[in-house]
Amino acid sequence: MNATCPKVGYVQSIIKKHAALDYTVVIVGDKKHPEVDGLLGYACAKGIIISTSDDIDKLPCVDKVCVVAQTTQDLDNYNKIVERIKQTCPDAIVFNTICSSTEQRQAEVIAMADEMDAMFIVGGKNSANTRRLADLAKKRQSSTFYIETPAEMEKINLAPYNRIGVSAGASTPN
Asked: Which residues contact 15 (CB under 8 A, 6 or more apart)?
C-alpha cells in the first residue's frame, strides 16, 4: 500500500516527467525536510533545492527549468522566490504545488492573528508546516505561543488575553 499524500504524488509526477524531458528541476522547500528529500529523488540528479531567495544565486542559467514547491511552503515566500527565478530564467515553467489546505490554513492564521490578543499554534516542534504557521502568526501577533503539549500551556499566564486564536499544523492529531 502506498501511503503517499495524493498532493505529494502529484508533485512527484511533475518532477519525474520534467526530469525525463531534461529540465533542471527546482524544488522550493526546506532542505532537510523528508518530503523535499523524497522529491529530490524523483529529479534523477537534475534537481536543485532552493530554500531562500539567496539560494537562487546558485541556480545555473539553463534553458529548461521546472519549478515546484514543497506542499507546505509559505505561498508568499514561494511567490517571491519564483519571481526571482523568473528574472534569472524567464522561460521557467512554474507549478504552484502548495497544498490548498495549507494555503487556506495559512490565510486563516494571518487573518485570525490580526483580530486576537494572542495566538496558540499547536503541533510538533519538528513539523515544518506548524513552524511556518507559528512564524506567520508571530509576524502579525507578538503574543504567539507555539506549543506541543498541554504541559506547556501551564507555564503561560492567560490573564492578559481576552481573545485567543488557536490553530494547528496539518499533521497535528485532533
From this structure: 25, 27, 39, 42, 43, 47, 66, 68
Q: Is residue 108 flagged as an active site residue?
A: no
Angle at 34 between CA 13 and CA 15, to 5 degrees: 20
- The active-site residue, picked from 35, 103, 115, 154, is 35
Q: Are 138 and 94 in contact (CB under 8 A)?
A: no
In order along its 174 residues, the chain shows pLDDT tens digits of: 676 777 888 999 999 999 999 999 999 998 888 889 999 999 999 999 999 888 888 777 788 999 999 988 888 889 999 999 999 889 999 999 998 888 888 899 999 999 999 999 999 888 888 988 999 999 999 999 999 999 999 989 999 999 999 999 877 777
What is this structure's pTM? 0.80
